[in-house]
User: What shape does this take?
Amino acid sequence: MIAKVSGFVVLIVILGSAGSRGQDAKIYKKISVENLEGILKGMEVDFKKAPGPSDKNLTIFTFERNKYKLALHYYGGTDLILVADFPAVPVTLLNQWNRGAKFSRGILYQDAKNDFSTLEASLDVAGGVTDDTIRHFIRRYDDEVKKFERLMLRAAVQEEEVVTKITSERLEKILKDMNIEFKKVPPKEKDVSVYEFERDTFKVHLRNIKGEDLMLVAPFKEISLKEINQYNSGRKFIRAVLYEEKEKKHTSLETNLDCTGGVSDRIIRYFIGTFDGELREFARFIAK
Amino acid sequence: MSPKILLGGCILALILSPSLCHSQEGKKEKVYRGLPTKELENTLKELKISFKKAPGNKEGTYFYDFERDKFKIRLTNYGNDLWIDAVFPKIALKEINRWNQDAKFSRAVLFKDGDHESTSLENQLDCRGGVTLGMVRQFIRRFDNEIEAFAKHIPTK
Assistant: This one.
């Protein structure tokens, strides 16, 4: 009996303290950009902020969580929308997701240049939310993205045009479709085309080697071999390498796509597009 | 030019031309986002690789251990990406960097397992943006060459 009573007392204390925390928590019906930034920083989210391209009310926070690139759309403080991009998948598959999902929706976007799917989740701030609500919204979305990707992977097989040799025309069209302004650089070797462009202030060289191998290269300042090894141990798909030319050292971030097995335009776009994240990640690493 | 050589040349040109056209113009093929286990295992069988399969720590991850030309190789399918690696004795970071300067389809990394240091020769194939079975075949086959070259690259004591 004593044990039961003490258990009851403990329960009251727990509930009481939770209740009082709930009463103390600040409820927003409109959240400021600064408050949202504070919440993201508190969650150790390393974000970038940019104004929306066409909507004055919109601010977009982009960041990575669990290796997924996410965008948090802030609409004047009253609505928050989390978005993650995925490759295009059949609408039937998205419909299957939307039938079962409670907290997110899958959407297919199609235009002349590209088609892709997104997973989106909304939070209506105007109804009243706390910091915890927003944190929970972001954390729960992590699970949604993981589940969504599993569904995508199971069924995501598409027939695409596949080539084993990449012509300059094909590669240049892909770059143009990605809105990448490039400059063709005179190559030092035979059968190699070199394209120079900027991605997010980083200078990148794309080398098309005999149409069989695409190589992305970006130069960075010199770091030690120990640091390079540390970086390579922790990352996939790329390598950091130290070079010395005319007694001047620099680190290079590189990745290759072997095209001889057969690649589609979408695979090449993905290869080029994902290098952006690698550049940012490496820049963060060497800045430490 | 003899008629035989001329005829042989014409036949060769006819044989080669469709494949050349295919390579640049493309043909419809399946592109997978993430590699299903069944497709990977079929590819390994097609390459006549006898493997030992074991589940990884995470759901959906599988290890495939096999030997190629006396080298022990581990291929890991994480679903989103394929990882292939072989372990070699420790070499100096300078040597590792020299390999990484020249290699395009692998990288060498020095890693520590407790007190023991080894060199891993590895490569990864990102399947999230799409992968063809031809890419998977090439990824596995090419690693044979990388291993062979790396074994020669390692300084002999």
Q: What stands out?
A: The beta strands of chain B are 27-32, 52-55, 62-68, 71-77, 81-89, 107-113, 116-126. The longest strand of chain B covers residues 116-126. The interface with chain A takes residues 22-34, 36, 60, 79-81, 83, 93-94, 96-97, 100-101, 104-105, 107, 109-111, 124, 126, 128-132, 134-139, 142 of chain B (CB under 8 Å). The CA atoms of residues 5 and 11 of chain B lie 10 Å apart.
